Predict the 3D structure of the following.
Amino acid sequence: MNDWFDMGGYELYVWGSIGCTLAVLAWNLWAPAAQRRELLREEPDSEEDHTEDAA
């Protein structure tokens, strides 16, 4: 099992690459959801502004 984790001496490169990949995947899942929540939170305010301008 240690041989598998050692990756033939390239463990820093391999595990670093895996870590970076997982971080990017997590960001790609989190960022759009956070942006959507923020836009939905701001949406009612922007509708009120448009109705006041139209009147």
